[in-house]
Design goal:
This is Lipoprotein. Residues 1-21 form the signal peptide. Keywords: Signal. The chain is α+β, with helices and mostly antiparallel strands. The chain has 2 domains: 19-206 and 305-545, no CATH class; 217-290, no CATH class. The chain is built from 14 helices and 15 strands. Helix 2 (114-121) crosses helix 14 (506-522). The two termini are 33 Å apart.
Length: 556
């Protein structure tokens, strides 16, 4: 029997996405009607990039799939590397639903001036003219009726509470000069779509639960919080993490595992519970851990961990170099509400794998809704996106489902998260704890793999391009010669500066901004969000189930 995606409403019917007049008396404003939560695309969780043609007309095979579909590291009990070899899609997904990839926006993009798009991307649609989140006020004080899915008179999801005002350690400060708990970190962008050269800049903030920010007596302590963040990083990345020197005696924890309490300058990863070796949080979180109320395990975030991810346009600085824009395209939120043990996570994966083996047409089950968020493996995910005039609004049911395939079902993530395992190291500016508005991507060295190789260079070599669709002609010209071979001098530059690859030219940045602005004005996100001007050519319109990709062996 075919399973369908389930949520709070019905499935299988078209989501209207109607735009109605707002009820706040401002007749010039509009608000998207989200009350119809039916789905037009039951497989919206399958990304447009999964329809890439991996073989060209000459029979040469490329493999962009390997970065996402790979053998997960336990407790990610998922090996989906077989998806590098064939298009194993359910029947409902065989016809490519992402029709925005077929749209030519050349005329519309040409009609937008450079000055107009720069003015647009430099306008802050998160805080507006105040120092507080505009959307938070709407959700708590002027909630549109059509956003209140259960009609209980209140917003039951995440209310934005970051101020994007960072100190020199990456901590977000409130207007009263307190701490919101959010902390920004630098990271190596995931290969492909998330490189700015392919459409967007972005940032990520992390926040641990209240107990991780408190000393043993329950008082807020920034030093305790910084140590607990380092402990979490050590567990998630399964490696030692350097820290500023700290007195272990007052904390009562041997952080560097040298056998005595003294001054520690690193968190040592040493977690083997079957051999009697474990690790500990500090402060109140450590006390709760000792009582079994807070959990700790390698490869997993503790319950209560939150992430805030803003996807933004590309701005240009005074020299014309690309940088993070003030305007957000999307604001994405995740919170770990439930702790699952290794055995429970394996059970979830085994059950889903068995269902797919019995029925190749089975659809992914995603509980939740756009107001409360959608749920996977103990996490809740929720998103906000621009309305027609550029203000942030909640994503619809179908727009939220778009996020759930990557975060809920590929081997490349760590506890469903992409960014934090890719955090830049202690040797980076501010120990890697900074927001991209404080420093840019230019000048950062190319990320290295565990075997010592270069990650982005490997992607270029295996994929033969700088994006999944092999449509980024600027990267192609910079890094490949006329025979499709990598240019050694460009690769040498990339080793020293990742910006040489992942940052676009000023011309391309503005073009991508304009293309996405057209999609915003159309509110056509259900048809795809990729900032394309002309239709990419390496895209399948129709597939046969389990059609071979041409890739002979998976890259691991």
């Amino acid at each position: 029997m075919k399973h369908v995606i389930y949520a709070s409403g019905f499935c299988g019917l078209v989501l209207t996405g109607a735009v109605l007049a707002a009820d706040d008396g401002a007749t010039s404003e509009t608000v998207v009607d989200l009350s119809d939560d039916r789905l037009g695309n039951l497989t919206a969780y399958i990304s447009p990039q999964c329809y890439t043609k991996t073989e060209d007309a000459a029979g040469q095979v490329f493999n962009p799939c390997f970065v996402c579909h790979t053998r997960g590291r336990i407790p990610t009990y998922l090996d989906d590397s077989d998806l590098q070899l064939s298009y194993s899609l359910p029947g409902d997904a065989l016809e490519n639903p992402w029709s925005n990839l077929r749209v030519d926006r050349s005329a519309q993009v040409a009609a937008i001036s450079d000055a107009a798009i720069l003015d647009y991307v430099r306008t802050d649609n998160y805080r507006g003219d105040s120092d507080r989140p505009t959307l938070a006020e709407t959700l708590t004080q002027r909630l549109p009726e059509t956003w209140d899915l259960d009609q209980n008179g209140r917003w039951d999801g995440y209310v934005p509470d970051a101020y994007f005002a960072f100190d020199d350690r990456g901590f977000d400060r409130t207007p009263e000069q307190g701490y919101s708990g959010w902390r920004a970190f630098g990271y190596a962008p995931f290969p492909g779509t998330f490189w700015p050269t392919n459409g967007s800049t972005d940032d990520v903030l992390i926040r641990l639960a209240d107990s991780f920010r408190q000393d043993a007596e329950g008082r807020f302590d920034l030093s305790v919080y910084a140590i607990n963040l380092a402990v979490v990083e050590s567990l998630v990345r399964r490696r030692d993490v350097p820290i500023d020197p700290v007195d272990e005696i007052g904390l009562g924890v041997d952080l560097d595992k040298d056998g005595h309490l003294g001054t520690a300058s690193r968190i040592v990863f040493d977690w083997a519970p079957l051999e009697g070796r474990t690790m500990s949080y500090v402060g109140r979180a450590g006390a709760l851990q000792a009582r079994g109320e807070v959990h700790l395990a390698a490869g997993l975030f503790p319950e209560g961990t939150e992430f805030l991810h803003s996807v933004r346009y590309i701005d240009l600085d005074e020299e014309g170099a690309p940088r993070l824009a003030a305007r957000m395209k999307e604001l994405r939120y995740a919170r770990k509400n439930v702790w699952y043990s290794y055995a429970e996570l394996k059970g979830i994966n085994d059950r889903e794998g068995a269902e797919r083996a019995l029925d190749p047409d089975i659809l992914k089950s995603v509980p939740g809704d756009f107001e409360r968020g959608m749920f996977t493996q103990g996490w809740v995910y929720q998103g906000f996106i621009e309305d027609r005039v550029g203000r942030l609004r909640p994503q619809s049911q179908e727009e939220t489902l778009f996020c759930m395939g990557c975060h809920g079902g590929i081997g490349a993530t760590t506890d469903t998260i992409f960014s934090f395992p890719r955090r830049l190291g202690y040797e980076t500016d501010q120990g890697g704890w900074f927001h991209w508005s404080q420093r840019g991507l230019a000048g950062l060295p190319e990320p290295r793999l565990e075997d010592g190789g270069y990650e982005y260079s490997r992607y270029l070599e295996i994929n033969g391009a700088g994006d999944e669709f092999r449509a980024n002609t600027e990267v192609m010209a910079r890094f490949f010669d006329d025979e499709g071979k990598l240019r050694p001098e460009s690769i040498a530059e990339l080793h020293e500066d990742m910006g040489a690859l992942i940052l676009p030219s000023a011309e391309r940045a503005l073009m991508l901004d304009k293309a996405y602005r057209v999609i915003v004005q159309e509110q056509s996100f259900r048809q795809g969000r990729d900032a394309t001007v002309s239709p990419p050519q390496n895209v399948h319109e129709l597939l046969i189930q389990n059609q071979p990709t041409g890739v002979a062996e998976p890259t691991l």
